[in-house]
Amino acid sequence: xxxxxxxxxxxxxxxxxxxxxxxxxxxxxxxxxxxxxxxxxxxxxxxxxxxxxxxxxxxxxxxxxxxxxxxxxxxxxxxxxxxxxxxxxxxxxxxxxxxxxxxxxxxxxxxxxxxxxxxxxxxxxxxxxxxxxxxxxxxxxxxxxxxxxxxxxxxxxxxxxxxxxxxxxxxxxxxxxxxxxxxxxxxxxxxxxxxxxxxxxxxxxxxxxxxxxxxxxxxxxxxxxxxxxxxxxxxxxxxxxxxxxxxxxxxxxxxxxxxxxxxxxxxxxxxxxxxxxxxxxxxxxxxxxxxxxxxxxxxxxxxxxxxxxxxxxxxxxxxxxxxxxxxxxxxxxxxxxxxxxxxxxxxxxxxxxxxxxxxxxxxxxxxxxxxxxxxxxxxxxxxxxxxxxxxxxxxxxxxxxxxxxxxxxxxxxxxxxxxxxxxxxxxx
Length: 428
What we know:
Elements: H1 5-8, H2 13-24, H3 28-41, E1 45-46, E2 59-64, E3 67-72, E4 83-89, E5 94-105, E6 108-116, E7 129-137, E8 142-146, E9 179-182, H4 189-197, E10 204-213, E11 218-220, E12 226-229, H5 232-245, E13 254-260, H6 277-288, H7 293-301, E14 304-308, E15 311-312, E16 334-338, H8 348-361, E17 365-369, H9 380-388, E18 391-396, E19 398-400, E20 407-410, H10 411-425
């Protein structure tokens, strides 16, 4: 008989750390705050975008809402200076709290929420949910907030819908409205949020608040080979990035970690990959190092970006949905993501760059390409390549149940990805 993993198989330091990171990061705003704390502890200095910077050299970072960009400059500027960027995203599919959210319906108090991103909606049913995000007070200050389990989206019992197991259809307005309480018509969810954030109700001006799964991540499998968790897309990449980045030593290039927000809704925001955030920071770094005009453009031409976002592992129950010749497995290495129509930015040169990093790190990698009959998703790689015009390659760990509120990752893959990103930044 095999001993179960949670009793006999010790988790690696990397797996324990990503669990801690996920639990600290129920929203992009919390993820940005956690990233800032980890960077500060390892010698990075926070800069304010609204001020002139006296120096960009060394180890610095900037926070813009739920996004973070950090960098490490080389000891000296050489004629062949370039930038090595790892990009990821801090958001995940969820439900966002509407204004005037609390309503009473048939004696129940419910909460109005808007679907955020392309989630696997049925995975949110019958879960213990909390609310988290930021409250903005009338003085313009943002306050992070997080409740315990206070919400539930309950299913209708099969006795009342005999077709539910054959044809589940969820109306996004009627069927996905969480229950908050019962018999309390004066209860207001915003009052609960203000209480949790320790601010006065009359001070609240606006909020960016999301539902999150309160269940902790779990290491599962007979040998501890899997991590079941919310937000693996894409905290798997964010954590792997920062875990490697804090140990990066200066090289001949500028090392940059860019963690964007709003990828799940198209990235077209001031803190998303379509916005100017990364370009703004790169220009300011370059100017601070005396690099402008044509010299800046040449630096960008010598640069590269590894766009790291989760991908799909082959599903044994739905093999027909995958390419017949490419079946990536969990725990067999991170994915090199390829698409002829440039839904992923990978090309031959970028593919070699990633293979070189994995070889230097001593870790495996796998190819992912879509079945021709299944539309391919996309990510921040093509957006970054389009905006900056630099060599970009798309990678990420394989997942099962992507966009579920409880995704499944391979514990080995998480460490593999971090090692490969570290090797890329080190100059591989």
